[in-house]
Specification:
Strand content: 15-25%
Number of helices: 6
Number of strands: 4
Structural class: alpha/beta
Largest sheet: 4 strands, mixed
């Protein structure tokens, strides 16, 4: 699969918060497509922007951690009995999963880390999409691989590496 081929992306952007100065829907599409480029030709995913209360509730339920986090990734796992014999052209084969991003946390972190809000939003989308593609940072080598990918994708989008000063 070529990285030059555009990704066909079906993005469901859900805005479930009152935060001001959110990126444009086209930005979310561009950032998600950049993370998918060369890794998937087609994908369908949901990005839900939430407030602190919903972010904290989801983080508590699914990660057993108190308070909100910046991004949660919920990959779509096709049940094995459905995967058998699934035609690659079937729309269900495109389902990638859901990202939940807490707008208040992203905006606060951008200020604290002296980053532009756009750069941090782009990082959260790229980071979350890579998680949906089964990348992780649980081990040092996995973290290095994921951070290298993130930095390259964000660089191609015109943003600095999110790990330069860390």
């Amino acid at each position: 699969m070529s990285g030059d081929r555009p990704v066909t992306l079906d993005l469901d952007l859900q805005i479930a918060c009152e935060a001001a100065d959110l990126p444009a829907p086209a930005d979310f599409e561009r950032w998600a497509a950049a993370a998918l480029a060369g890794r998937r030709e087609r994908a369908s995913l949901t990005i839900r922007l939430v407030d602190v209360e919903e972010g904290a509730a989801l983080n508590g339920t699914y990660r057993e951690r108190e308070g909100p986090t910046n991004v949660l990734s919920f990959p779509f796992d096709l049940p094995p009995e459905l995967a058998l014999g699934l035609d690659a052209q079937d729309p269900i084969a495109d389902l990638l999963g859901d990202l939940v991003i807490c707008a208040d946390v992203v905006q606060r972190q951008a200020r604290e880390q002296c980053k532009t809000a756009q750069a941090h939003w782009a990082h959260m989308v790229v980071h979350g999409v890579l998680h949906l593609l089964d990348y992780d940072h649980l081990t040092e080598s996995d973290a290095e691989e994921m951070e290298t990918l993130e930095s390259g994708i964000l660089g191609a989008l015109g943003f600095p590496s999110p790990y330069e000063d860390q």
